[in-house]
Write the structure tokens for this entry.
Amino acid sequence: MELTYTQHGDYLLPDLTLGEMPPLGKYAQLRLQYLKTENRPLYAMLLGTGKLVPHLAAVQRQATEQVRRTVKRLAVKQNVTEELKARDPMEWVGRMNNIKHSAEEIVLKELIYL
């Protein structure tokens, strides 16, 4: 990767851009915002080395998979089954929403905001 520089007063500063940013998922956007506001050194290092987009894509994949696995595990543990879905759809939806929210909270704590 070849860097170009621009003169700003007495200083030459590198021209750093993100280039074409692919569409980011929910978890990648949250991670990006966290890096920009809470972990500037890591953000600058990832941006400067061109590894920011691959990092965000990896976080998105990992978070999505972890939420899926956690929802499945919690649904089994709390006995939220297809039988419940057929018998009482509103109860099933409410319980599944609670499970998904719990799974996302776990992922945010363990993967996004660290």
Summary: Helices lie at 26-38, 40-49, 52-77, 82-87, 89-112.
